[in-house]
Design brief:
The protein is mostly helical. It is built from 17 helices and two strands. Strands 1-2 form a two-stranded antiparallel ribbon.
Length: 472
C-alpha cells in the first residue's frame, strides 16, 4: 500500500521509476548520484554559499560538489574560510547524504517514490552490501546481510550516522573548547569533525585544521575511531551490533573485512616507521612514542580518512608509493571508505595463494568462495587500475608536477581519501574536471560495476572447446 508521501508523485512517474529501477538498479543509482551532484553544484555555485557573497566558478563548484557527495575530501578552496555558514551547512549535508551509499540511497529514494520497499528495492539495498544479491541464480549464504534483513540494514545505516557521530562529537567537545573556541562554534566544530571522520571525508572547518589539535591525542584518537567505524562498513557494524561477543556467528564477509583491515593497518604502521624516518625530515625530532602514533594516524587515514598532520608533499617517494597502495585498497564494502575494498583485495590474494598451492578452490575460515566472486573481484580491481591509469595520464597533461604527485592525488581521488600533495588545488579547470570524473567513478563506479555484472550474468547451457593460451 502506498504511503501518504508517495501520493505526491504522479502515478506515471512512480511507474517509470519502478520500471527503470527494475531494469537496471545500477543505472538508477548512477542517475541518483549524478542528480545529487548537479543539485549540490548549483547550490555551491550560488552567492549565498560563499563567504565573499560572490558566485563560485563552475569548475570549483562542481569539484566541491563531487568531492562532497562522493565523500572524497579533496578541495580546491580553503574549506574553513571560503564557504559561508550556509555553504558549510550544504557541505555537511552533502557528506551525510553521500555516506549513505550508492545503492542504499537509491533504494530509499525508490521506496519513497513508489511508496513501498518492494522486492526490487530490497535487492538494490542488499546489493550495497553484496552485489551478488542481484544474481539471478542461487547465491551462497556466506553473505553480509540476508534479503529479509534489508530493513534492519537501512535502520542500522541511519542509526549509525546519528548515534556514532553524536557520541564522537560529544567526546570531542571538551577538546575543542580547550582550544579556545566559543561554545556555539565548538559544538559546530565537534559535529563537523565527527561527521567528517565517520564519513571518511576529511574536511576541516577551522582555520589551521588539525594543527590546532596536533598535541591533543584524545581528539586525534577520536578522529581515528570515527574513520575506523566508517571504513569497516555498515554490514560489519550491523553484524557486530548483533553478535559482538559471538565471533562464530560472524559471516565470512565480516571476518575477511576485519582481519584484512587489521593486517593492512599494522603493515602500514610498520612500513611508515621503517621507510619515512630514514628518508625525510617529516618525522624529525619525534620521540619513539610520538613517531609510532604519527605512523598509526597516517596508516588509519590512508584507509580513506583524509586527515593529515604532516605535509604529504614532503613525504619520501617510497612512502608515497606505499600510501598509494593502501589508498587504492581502501576500506570495507558498503562503507564510507573508497578504494577497491579490502574484501576485493583479500579475494584476489586468496586466489593467488590457492593457485600457488595447486588448489582448484578458494577457501577462507572454513568456507569456499565461489568463482563468480573471484570474477567480480578481478573486474573491480581492473576497473580501479584502469580508472587510475587513465586519470593519471590525463591529469599529467595539465601539470608539470612530478608524476609521483600526480599518481598520489589521482589515487586519493579514486579512493575518495582526501589527502593531497598540494597538486589538486593548483590544477586548471580541465584537470579539475578529470579529477571530478575520477572521484565519481571511484565512489560510484566500482559497486555499480559489480552490481551490473552480477545482474547481467545468465545461465549458459553449453561449453565451447577448451584451449589454453600461454599466461605469464
Amino acid at each position: 500500500m502506498a504511503t501518504e508521501g508517495s501520493q505526491s508523485f504522479p502515478p506515471q512517474f512512480r511507474e517509470w521509476v519502478e520500471g527503470f529501477a527494475s531494469r537496471s538498479p545500477s543505472r538508477f543509482a548512477l542517475l541518483v548520484f549524478a542528480t545529487l551532484i548537479a543539485v549540490f553544484t548549483f547550490l555551491l555555485s550560488q552567492p549565498f554559499a560563499s563567504a565573499s557573497g560572490k558566485t563560485t566558478n563552475f569548475a570549483d563548484a562542481l569539484f566541491s560538489a563531487v568531492s562532497t557527495i562522493c565523500v572524497a575530501g579533496l578541495s580546491t578552496v580553503d574549506m574553513a574560510t571560503y564557504w559561508s555558514p550556509l555553504g558549510n551547512a550544504i557541505v555537511f549535508t552533502g557528506t551525510q547524504v553521500g555516506a549513505l551509499g550508492v545503492l542504499t540511497l537509491a533504494s530509499i529514494l525508490g521506496a519513497i517514490i513508489s511508496g513501498r520497499l518492494g522486492l526490487r528495492a530490497r535487492l538494490m539495498a542488499a546489493s550495497d552490501t553484496n552485489p551478488l544479491r542481484l544474481h539471478s541464480g542461487p547465491v551462497s549464504e556466506g553473505q553480509a546481510i540476508r534479503l529479509g534483513e534489508v530493513g534492519g540494514l537501512l535502520a542500522t545505516v541511519a542509526l549509525s550516522l546519528v548515534i556514532i557521530e553524536s557520541v564522537i562529537a560529544a567526546l570531542m567537545l571538551p577538546s575543542v573548547l580547550a582550544a579556545g573556541y566559543p561554545l556555539g562554534e565548538s559544538i559546530w566544530f565537534s559535529f563537523y569533525y565527527s561527521a567528517m571522520s565517520f564519513t571518511n571525508t576529511g574536511f576541516t572547518p577551522n582555520v589551521g585544521g588539525l594543527e590546532m589539535f596536533a598535541g591533543d591525542y584524545w581528539f586525534l584518537t577520536l578522529i581515528m575511531v570515527g574513520v575506523l567505524l566508517g571504513s569497516v562498513g555498515f554490514p560489519v557494524i550491523y553484524a557486530l551490533s548483533r553478535n559482538l561477543k559471538n565471533p562464530r556467528k560472524w559471516s565470512l564477509h565480516v571476518k575477511i573485512t576485519l582481519v584484512t583491515w587489521a593486517i593492512l593497518w599494522v603493515g602500514g604502521v610498520i612500513a611508515y616507521l621503517l621507510l619515512e624516518p630514514e628518508n625525510s625530515l617529516v618525522f624529525a625530532g619525534m620521540g619513539p612514542g610520538e613517531l609510532t602514533y604519527q605512523a598509526a594516524f597516517l596508516s588509519t587515514m590512508a584507509r580513506s580518512g583524509g586527515f593529515n598532520l604532516v605535509d604529504i608533499g614532503q613525504l619520501d617517494s617510497s612512502t608515497l608509493l606505499m600510501t598509494d597502495m593502501l589508498m587504492f585498497i581502501g576500506g570495507g564494502s558498503a562503507s564510507t571508505a573508497g578504494g577497491i575494498k579490502v574484501t576485493t583485495f583479500a579475494v584476489l590474494i586468496l586466489a593467488a595463494l590457492s593457485e600457488a598451492r595447486g588448489r582448484s578452490s578458494i577457501e577462507a575460515f572454513g568456507r569456499t568462495i565461489p568463482q563468480d566472486v573471484l570474477r567480480l573481484a578481478v573486474s573491480v580491481g581492473l576497473w580501479g587500475a584502469t580508472t587510475v591509469a587513465v586519470g593519471a595520464l590525463l591529469v599529467s597533461e595539465f601539470t608539470d608536477a612530478a608524476f609521483e604527485y600526480v599518481l598520489f592525488d589521482v589515487i586519493s581521488a579514486f579512493a575518495t581519501v582526501g589527502m593531497s600533495t598540494g597538486l589538486t588545488a593548483t590544477l586548471p579547470d580541465e584537470g579539475l574536471y578529470v579529477m571530478s570524473i575520477v572521484m565519481f567513478m571511484g565512489r560510484v563506479g566500482t559497486v555499480t560495476l559489480a552490481a551490473a555484472l552480477a545482474a547481467s550474468q545468465v545461465g549458459q547451457f553449453f561449453r565451447r572447446p577448451e584451449e589454453r593460451p600461454i599466461v605469464g
